[in-house]
Amino acid sequence: MLFLLSTTLGLRGEVVNAEPEFFEVGFEGTLAASPEAVFETFEAIGSWWNPSHTFGGRAENYRFEQHERALLENLETGWAKHMEIAYWNKPRQVVLKGGLGPLMMLPVNGVMVWTFTETDEGTAIRLNYKVAGHSAGEQGLKVWAGPVNEVLQEQFNALLASVTKTGR
Questions:
Q1: Cis peptide preceding 91, ω within 30 of 0
Q2: pLDDT for residue 159 is more than 60
Q3: Residue 99: is its pLDDT beyond 50?
Q4: Please, is 85 exposed, middle or buried when counting C-beta atoms within 10 Å of its C-beta (0-12, 13-18, 19+)?
Q5: Is 51 helix (H, G, I), strand (E, B) or coil?
Q6: Residue 53 backbone phi and psi in degrees, to 5
Q7: Whole-angstrom Cα distance, residue 50 to residue 1?
Q8: pLDDT band for position 10 (cuts 50, 70, 90)
Q9: Which among 115, 95, 110 has a CA at the least distance from the CA of 27?
Q10: Pick from 61, 94, 147, 165: CA 20 to 30 A from residue 44's CA?
């Protein structure tokens, strides 16, 4: 059975920086599994992403589409292109670009980097998301840092739990 060995930034994640025009959040964890096994679960994003953080309420409609080079969600009335795949290096790293969820409605640029590094203990997993741009109000994007941190922490933990549960 696989298990979570350690987390460097803690299970609550971390708001690395938050300013009116920029924020950054980051997470780290280590699993006793190979990068290939962790990446296999990562690729099946619809099996571990929380459905309450989708537009259609159904995580199974979430998927990485290699042909479209995007993270897509099928909806009853169409589809949503959540982020573009800028770099896909299986099983080492994925770089996604765009505003995730409600951030797609704002004039922002986001870069999300998932990194899977083989260690003596298994696989170190890092998630880093940086967003720059504009959001109305004096605080601007700074007000988004906490909520985005919470949502991505939940997804990060769900990936770790899914790898542990499936034994991949």
A1: yes
A2: yes
A3: yes
A4: middle
A5: helix
A6: -110, 40
A7: 23
A8: very low
A9: 115
A10: 147
Contact 98, 82 (CB under 8 A): yes
Mean pLDDT for 104-132 is 97
Percent of the chain with pLDDT over 90: 88
Which pLDDT does position 164 carry in this prediction? Answer: 86
117 in Cβ contact with 35 (< 8 Å): yes
| Residue 15 structure tokens | 């708001």
pLDDT (average), residues 147-156: 96
Q: Which residues contact 9 (CB under 8 A, 6 or more apart)?
A: 26, 27, 28
The whole-chain average pLDDT of the chain stands at 91
Phi and psi torsions of 112, nearest 5°:
-110, 125
Give the rounded distance of the alpha carbon of 91 from its chain centre: 15
* Residue 65, token pair as written in the block: 């589409």
Rounded CA gap, 75 and 113, in Å?
Answer: 26
Looking at residue 147, what DSSP letter applies? H
